[in-house]
Design a protein that fits this description.
The model is unreliable at about 310-315 (pLDDT under 50). The protein is globular and about 65 Å long. It is about 10% helix and about 45% strand. With about 325 residues, it is mostly beta strands. Strand 10 (about 170-180) and strand 11 (about 180-190) form a beta hairpin. The strands form 2 sheets. Strands 1, 2, 3, 4, 5, 8, 9, 10, 11, 12, 13, 14 and 15 form a 13-stranded antiparallel β-sheet that branches. It has a two-stranded antiparallel sheet with strand order 6-7. The longest helix is centred in the C-terminal third of the chain and has 9 residues, at about 290-300. The chain has helices at about 45-50, 140-145, 160-165, 290-300, and strands at about 1-15, 20-35, 55-60, 65-75, 75-85, 90-95, 100-105, 110-125, 130-135, 170-180, 180-190, 220-225, 235-245, 265-275, 280-290.
């Protein structure tokens, strides 16, 4: 059982003046939680030994976000989102569940500082907008609506947040618009990296890169369409498809990617109903990872000093 208190510090978007082209905004969260369950690494494999473990509490700052935007005129706009997760970065110890609970020192403080959005956009018409740069991938309910006012739980819902990148952001090109009762978006992105997939989090860390750059040897597409025909109701369909094996550095001339692709396919449907004093949200996701059985053999042969995750897979479906 988990008891959580959350304070939403701010959620705003303001401009310096009515004539100003510069916009500044952001939000922040401060949470306190008391967790009435064990946090021991073997709590699932040996539940009887840890069923009476004491509760544990924590304070957390999940997100502190700053938005900056600028309108150049004639349809040209610029936007950024800088996010501090869990207080930023530093030196910290963490318990590695995938390595039997071993303590490891990381060059981070359990958190991250990320540039989640950094894009330039040209608006030709309400139904035709072209955005280029670092953008949010709107697959699933969590990523398309990731601000804290868009979910009921204190933390983002654990379903999508556990097995898919959240918030999922990558560099690419997006075409989006709204026509009538529909909003649509199509994106071309760098593919995910199978070297970062794990048996616990599936593809969640696939968009991360230990390099100073994102490897783009493989590419992917993401699409989303939302319908607003019924007053107060939004229904969304979204999907993703791309190859993940071989999207690593350095590229191998005769590597495993010449035989295996590591296809990643995701389909999602979600809805939000907000009318008559009711707010109802729901979602359903399907994910597929091809060549999953080959990944455990691939990683066992990798250099032990590789900066990528090493893992084995037991299932290709989530």
């Amino acid at each position: 059982m988990k008891s959580i208190i959350s304070v939403l510090i701010a959620c705003c978007a303001v401009t310096a003046s009515a004539q100003s082209r510069l916009s500044v905004g952001g939000y922040g969260e401060v949470n306190y939680s008391r967790n009435y369950y064990s946090d021991h690494v073997s709590r699932y494999s040996q539940p009887e030994e840890h069923k009476d473990d004491p509760s544990h509490g924590r304070f957390d700052i999940p997100h502190a976000v700053i938005y900056l935007g600028y309108d150049f005129g004639k349809g040209w706009t610029f936007g950024t989102e800088i996010e501090f997760e869990h207080g930023g970065t530093g030196i910290a110890y963490e318990k590695e569940d995938e390595e039997g609970g071993e303590w490891e020192q990381e060059t981070e403080k359990g958190g991250e500082v990320e540039l989640e959005q950094f894009w330039l956009q040209k608006t030709f018409a309400p139904w035709a907008n072209l955005r280029v740069g670092h953008i949010v991938v709107p697959v699933g309910l969590n990523n398309a609506h990731h601000e804290p006012t868009n979910f009921f739980t204190v933390y983002r819902p654990e379903g999508e947040n556990t097995i898919m990148p959240s918030t999922w952001h990558q560099t690419g090109i997006s075409f989006w618009g709204r026509y009538g009762k529909f909003r649509y978006e199509a994106q071309l992105l760098a593919g995910l990296n199978a070297d970062n997939f794990t048996n616990v989090g599936w593809i969640k860390k696939g968009h991360k890169s230990p390099m100073e750059f994102d490897v783009a040897n493989k590419y992917a597409t993401a699409v989303r369409i939302d319908n607003y025909s019924v007053p107060g109701l939004r229904i969304g369909l979204s999907g993703y498809y791309g190859h993940s094996i071989g999207n690593t550095y350095p590229a191998e001339k005769d590597g495993i990617s010449t035989k295996y692709k590591g296809r990643v396919a995701i389909g999602s449907i979600d809805f939000t109903y907000n009318a008559h004093n009711w707010i109802v949200r729901g979602q359903a996701d399907y994910g597929y990872l091809g060549s999953a059985e080959q990944l455990k053999y691939m990683y066992n042969r990798k250099n032990s000093k590789s900066p990528f995750k090493h893992s084995a897979y037991t299932s290709s479906h989530r």
